[in-house]
Amino acid sequence: MVDSALFPAIREAIQQNELGNASAYQLSFARLGDSGASFGIFQGDTNVNSTARQTPLSILRQAGTDQDGINRIMAAVSQPCPEGNPLSDADTALTNAALSSPGGRALMEQMDSTLMNVGIMVPAYYIVHHPRRMPSHVPFAHV
Predict the structure, then answer these.
(1) pLDDT value at position 14?
(2) At what angle do helices 102-116 and 7-19 cross, to 10 degrees?
(3) CA atoms in the 13 A half-sphere facing the CB of 22
(4) Please, which of 7, 87, 102, 106 could form a disulfide with 92 given CB 3.0 to 4.6 Å?
(5) What share of the chain is helix, strand, coil (3-state, %, to 5)?
(6) What is the rounded distance in angstroms from the CA atom of residue 18 to the CA atom of residue 95?
(7) Cα angle at 118 between 112 and 122, to 5 degrees?
(8) What ranges do the domains of the chain cover?
């Protein structure tokens, strides 16, 4: 298995690859394929990843956003966004403020840890123990 002492270096490498100097604590839009809004070090995608969809929902609730605002924001970013940001300037500012708040950062850290465990620990287990049986839905399964 991967030594957990390596996790900070792995996180930093992924952050530099995914974001460069951009903030992980704001929405970004890849404008590719089925991508929705992405955020966090691991760029959790709100359209294709249930963990990434649940995280901003929890963060917006924690920030006191009204239910109509949450519904409007989540509906807009939980679908492909090939044209970029579908949110109004006000909803973008509201969402980014919630994501970058101390509570938002804490929930995002939890999401990133979950995504790292799925993306690193699960494939590492299969590589070591069952290299020919790695499920195709596991990240890096076809590397």
Answers:
(1) 75
(2) 110
(3) 17
(4) 87
(5) 60, 5, 35
(6) 20
(7) 150
(8) 4-133
